[in-house]
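Technical note accompanying the year-one report. For the benefit of new consortium partners, we illustrate the data format agreed upon in the data management plan: each record pairs a sequence with a structure-token string. No post-processing was applied to the example shown here.
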Amino acid sequence: MKLAFLGPAPPLRGGIVTYYGLLARALAARGHDVFWASFRRQYPGFLFPGSAQEGETAAWLDHPNRPRFVPWSPLSWWRTCRDLEQAAPQAVVIKYWLPFFAPGFWAVTWLLRRRTRVRVIYLLDNVIAHEKYPLANFLTRGALRQGHGFIAQSAQVRRDLETVLPGLDPRRVVEAPHPVYDFGVPGRPRPTRAEARARLDLPPDARLVLFFGFIKPYKGVLHLLDAAPLLKQRYGDGVRVLVVGDVYGDKQPYLDRIAQGGAADIVRLVDGFVPDELVESYFVAADLVVLPYVSATQSGIVQIAYNYDRPVVTTNVGGLPEVVADGETGFLVEPGDAAALAGAIARFFDEGRAEAFGAAVAVEKRKYSWERMAAAIEELAAQ
């Protein structure tokens, strides 16, 4: 079967790029041809206050065929549709995560549906935006109405989809969880914990807590920084809190919170994009991944943590309880509660849960395979 993607690809960087690349690999392994109608640009500068949109991330992935799509350029939408029409796939797969992309997706899929017999499959990270966007619900509904089939990556996402598209035929929706991310370079052995910590200049024996990902207000990083002084009171110099990722917007509130909390010596803020080869080192070096989200539908960071057998402390919001089993693969706390967050982290270390949680994660992650996602695409493409 010939399939197409409409989404970002190298040299653009980020988790979405890596997702598409790993999915392409899984589909190719099952005998499918993949055509990639990729983005030429992803965000205008005012929507991307991070360090840079291009880099060496996922450089080992196959590069796309046609980098044409620009989210704010109607001419590029027409050209992208023409490219897809010429490629003649059986289905085009579009990963949906922000209303900002909805007008372009809406236009391309509307044209495809009227000019071809190509099936449109939306792969849904979230349907309801984490942050406010003008006309978000209208744009999302318009784009998704063009879909023939949908892959919801959690039960929460499916419920949100049914709210946006009431009366949707359930046969058009498949639930398939977000697969695990492996950021290792093929053919290169994974570093040991000691090697990863040495590479990152981290204490070899400290209790190491990691937040990873774009740093946005809804991710609750300030609550983790508020928890850091409580961890220092308990463990002194024997704990480290790493906050790693591009800061969206003003960095100063995070620096102020670190300075005012009295725990600056145990907190490291790494502001900027992390190359793939270092992503692996951070997760291997960590004992525990902490995601203190205030709101969320799901998080691909959980799947990165699971790939490296790392337990997760996160909040009881959205679809996160679907993937983090409280007391088995991590702990769940209520959002916005720094004391509860610190308590869960301390419980993990004090009760010696690393081995048991790590073993449970190793079993749990088998559910999150790329083969399962590829099979969901095959099912919808064949309808």
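Partners are asked to follow this layout when depositing records. Residues 193-367 form a domain with the Rossmann fold fold (CATH 3.40.50.2000).
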